[in-house]
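for ur thesis appendix - UspA domain-containing protein. copy paste whatever u need, i formatted it the way the template wanted (i think)
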Amino acid sequence: MGRGSPRLASFCLNRLTTRVRVRSPPIEHSKPISGGNKSDLSTNTTKAEKKAREVTTKAAWFVAGRRIMIVVDSSQEAKSAVHWALTHTVQRQDTVVLLYVCRSAANQGGEVGDIDQKGTNPRGYEILSSIKNSCQMKKPGLEVEIVSAEGEEKGPTIMGAAKKQGISLLVLATGSGPR
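the 3d part is after this line
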C-alpha cells in the first residue's frame, strides 16, 4: 500500500498559454518616377534610401495607430480583458473601441452604432461609460470610443461590428459572462 496522490496533474495553471496574433498592414512600395529599367533604378537608388523609405512607411503606420476593439459586459472577465489589453497591447496612438452587445428584439435586425445616454439600453451605457473612464484614468490621452450592437447571436454580431469599424485587433474575455 503506497501513498495515494491526488489526480490533479492534468489541471496545472502553469500550462495555460495566451495566444495573440497581431497582423501588421502590408508595406506599399512606391513605383519609380522615371520610366527606366531595373539597372537605372538600382544605380539611382542606394540601399540606404530604400531602407529609409521602408522605415518611413512603417513609421507612418505607427503614427496613425490601430483600432482595438474590446468586447465588454458587466462580468469580471470583461474587466480583466480590458486591463490585459491596456497593459499588453494598447499604445498611445491607438484607438480603443469598447463594444457592448445586447439581444435585439425579434422584429429588429442587428444594428451597430454609437451609443448615447438616451439609447435603448441604459445599463449598457452605464457599463461602457464606467469602463471608458477607467481606461482614460489608466492611460491618459487615450482615445476611447463606445459602441453598442444588437443581435440575436453574439459571435456574428461582434464580427460584423469589428468589420464595420475597421478593427485591427479584437479582444474578447474568456468565460461565460452575462447572456
